[in-house]
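INPUT
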Amino acid sequence: MTAQDIGVFVFILIAGTLGTDIWRWLGVFGGKQLSEESEALVWVRSVATALVAGVIASQVLYPGGVLAGTPVTLRIGAAAAGFAVFLLLKKNMLAGIAVALAVLAIGLHLLGI
Amino acid sequence: MTDMLPEQSRRYWFVQGMKGLFSLPGFILMSAFVGFTALAFQSGLTRGEAAFLTFFVWALPSQMIVVGAISSGMGVLAAFLAVSLASIRMTPMVAALVPEIREKKTSSALLIFLSHFVAITAWVYTLKKVQDIPREGRLAFFAGLGITLTLVNTAIVFGLYGVVSQLPPIAAGTLYFLTPMYFVMSIWESARQPVIYWALALGVIIAPASHYVAPQIDMLVTGLVAGTFAYVIDRSRRRRAS
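OUTPUT
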């Protein structure tokens, strides 16, 4: 059942709200047994990070809207330039984000978008 | 503060919590939600859907997954699993927060209600401040902070949706990019274990393959394959080190 079949709001409540709040509720009750250092939690954290990394990659590689028709090399280049600056300037997020967005904006401008 | 009645003290600390909106983490979060508004619009969500999603999920990674799931036609069960895998981290977060802020007479129902407002910004901020707050003011402080952050950012999404939808394409496209860039850098910056770097790198590398092989459930495949792979690499590294 996709969002189209059951409606976007129901989809959000089941996948989004329930999928997130269940874990918050569990924390109110039995969460103490789940140690931050346990092997299971290291795996969970690793899977969660990879999952979000995959979502980030999809947003760059397969964007919707106005970026959909733009060259993938521009989007990867902008993201890579921003991340490189972020690392070079000792994890300066503001600088990294600014460079990524600036490279993308200049590229879009040169493409006449 | 010691001469205040508990009721006055609670009101005072609720308002102190609300003021957290104007902190640096508060501003960073609001900027991220401006970006999320553009992402939601460009991905085809309506204004009401985007605001509803923000209030009733209140966790940006989950929200990104839901947006991706809706636009790619993912099934609700697979989306629920993907959101769950990204949200298990909430359990130890809430479990660490609750003993710090609850009083003996605090009801479980109230804690369940307030737990919805736990997300990384309010969590870090509350745990940092909690030592300087008297016990009876702590729950109120968190409630003031968490509820304010949630409501204001929901209002940002609702209010700016109209603005974002009118932006020239170059500005809209650039704003869309804010969310992925913000996320990849904030995960890298806040990583406390090497496994996070591995998971991030492998997730990005494996994502196109998952998209090609299993477009309907690509997020789940990427998370499980890259995450498990990163975990195995990290574990063998730790074993060698010890």
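end of record. The mean pLDDT of chain A is 93.
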